[in-house]
Amino acid sequence: MAQQDDVFKKIVSHAKEYGFVFQSSEIYDGLAAVYDYGQNGVELKNNIKRYWWDAMTLLHENIVGIDSAIFMHPTIWKASGHVDAFNDPLIDNRDSKKRYRADVLIEEEIAKIDDKIEKEVAKAAKRFGESFDETLYRQTNPRVAEHIKEREELHERFAKAMNDNDLEALRQIIVDRGIVCPVSGTKNWTEVRQFNLMFRTEMGSTADGAMTVYLRPETAQGIFVNYLNVQKTGRMRLPFGIAQIGKAFRNEIVARQFIFRMREFEQMEMQFFVRPGEELKWFEYWKQWRLQWHKALGMGDEKYRYHDHDKLAHYANAATDIEFQMPFGFKEVEGIHSRTNFDLSQHEKFSGKNIKYFDPELNENYTPYVIETSIGVDRMFLSVLCSSYEEQMLDGGDKRVVLHLPAPLAPVKCAVLPLVKKDGLPDKAREIVNDLKFDFATRYDEKDSIGKRYRRQDAIGTPYCITVDHQTLEDNTVTLRERDSMEQTRVSVDDLHKLIHDRVSLTTLLRRLG
After folding, report:
1. Candidates 3.30.930.10, 3.40.50.720, 3.90.1300.10, 3.40.50.880; CATH matching 2-85+197-274+340-380
2. How is residue 394 annotated by DSSP?
3. Where in the chain is CATH 3.30.930.10?
4. How many whole angstroms from its chain centre is CA 320?
5. Domain 400-511 adopts which CATH fold?
6. Positions of the chain with pLDDT lower than 50, given as ranges
7. Phi/psi at 311 (5° precision)
8. Using CA atoms, how far apart are residues 167 and 437, in angstroms rounded to an integer?
9. Which candidate in 128, 347, 378, 480 could, as Cys together with 259 as Cys, close a disulfide (CB 3.0–4.6 Å)?
10. What letter does residue 68 receive in the DSSP assignment?
11. How far apart are the C-alpha atoms of 114 and 120, rounded to whole Å?
């Protein structure tokens, strides 16, 4: 665990050093759990959003997009349940004065038991070698069986407390397990309390006439209140979906792990409207399709897993998370939920407007059911960064830090490097840049040795480096260096566009999804 923490610290440091992520308001000592994206970070982030958007709207004829406002009528949040039920169970340690989410403390306790199981299995695998039968070992080893039983009992107790919204039961689990504050190391806990996560402000020109409004805690409600507008103006028939990318805001008390949990973040959400009774079929479809979208990036299929919810939200009849293996464990990056018709029914009730869908095939009006796919842009960004970061020892004792970013997501697709700053090489290099820049994010670099320039491009994940030398002026060929393998090949300048396009184009990535 300590080694993983060390790797994560290096990733955070790398993100700042190379212009991916900065602490917000840093010159004023920063603002907790708020971050800014730098010059390379914003390009990577935009490429992630483009991959999601095109996968949704180009590959599905029945999905369109909108961009709804951040400020919405406050009754919307009453209808959605956020005013009354959008809470986290919080607990304070009296000695450190630190505040924690009670559910997260218990989840981390469960994760510790999982680590014990995995360590037992790893030791046995090393001891027995190729003859090791992991499944049999998990079933028969007494220590593993004891840990599994302990985990199941704790998990069952935790799930019941969450489903019952039993705050005292949550606290009792923390007490019984002897969970200590990470800062003070003591067990001096307060009671567990609920804390509403919405930011509120006022809209209006005078204090007396001001209306309380909220910064939206999710983007989904903007889709729900517009679904009938989109359906009618787009002549949409069920099933159909509405996609949106936008900022959301949550007053997270326990905001941590860099950009994994922030107070201002960005979501990519799609609400898919279906006939009642068909929702679970579509839930399974989107559960599979969204995992396929993640795996198409080639970051390692084994790094993903599903996590079905123990406690369903008040609006859901099925829910699962897609989790990714971060340096600090498997964590949620996307949720797929069957929201039933709760949201639309609530908005119809609170607005007093008829927003039912008329089904021409059935010749009847009804409230559609909804399947939601919701992915955090920032969490997706972090998963890409973490899976791509590597420190490599090279022949001769040299070392490089490289980001093996999926090429279509890389902020810079190619860098053009004149071998020396004379003899017409910079002019030829600029000519190549001016040809490629219309299709690819292209960077020109002439400072320092060619080796140092390669290292700079490796550190930001540039898939290709193009070196212009004296031979280029003779036969119009350049050296094309590939980031991951560091292989160098001599190619014609005329072939550069096609060679680069085949690997870095978003279209190539989308074709893997069909």
Report:
1. 3.30.930.10
2. P
3. 2-85+197-274+340-380
4. 15
5. Rossmann fold (3.40.50)
6. 1
7. -110, 120
8. 57
9. 378
10. -
11. 10
**Whole-number pLDDT of residue 208:** 65
Q: Which two tokens stand for residue 443?
A: 């960077």
* Domain limits, CATH 3.40.50.800, in the chain: 400-511
202 CB neighbour count, 10 Å cutoff = 11
Give the CA count within 13 Å in the CB-facing half-sphere of 321. 15
The binding site for ATP comprises 250-252, 260-265, 332-333, 376-379
* DSSP alpha helix (H) spans, 64-101: 74-80, 82-85
Q: In 135-293, which ranges are E strands?
A: 193-196, 199-203, 211-215, 240-249, 264-274
pLDDT of residue 25: 92
Q: What is the pTM of this model?
A: 0.82
Contact 330, 324 (CB under 8 A): yes
The residue among 222, 218, 202 whose CA lies nearest residue 210 is 202
Please state whether beta strands 464-468 and 414-418 pair in parallel, antiparallel, or not at all (unpaired): parallel
Q: What is the pLDDT of residue 235?
A: 93
Binding-site residues from annotation for substrate:
101, 218, 265-269, 372-376
DSSP label of 71:
B
**What secondary structure, in 3-state letters, does 130-160 show?**
HHCCHHHHHHHCHHHHHHHHHHHHHHHHHHH
Q: Say what the pLDDT of residue 206 is.
A: 62
Q: Strand, coil or helix: what is 49?
A: helix
| Six token digits for residue 270 | 């799609």
Quick one: pLDDT at residue 293?
A: 96
Quick one: pLDDT at residue 456? 95
**Structure confidence by residue, pLDDT tens digits, 413-455:** 999 999 998 989 999 999 999 999 999 999 999 999 999 999 9
Annotated binding-site ranges:
101, 218, 250-252, 260-269, 332-333, 372-379
**Per residue in 478-512, pLDDT tens?**
999 999 999 999 999 999 999 999 899 999 899 98
Tell me whether strands 193-196 and 87-92 are parallel, antiparallel or unpaired.
antiparallel
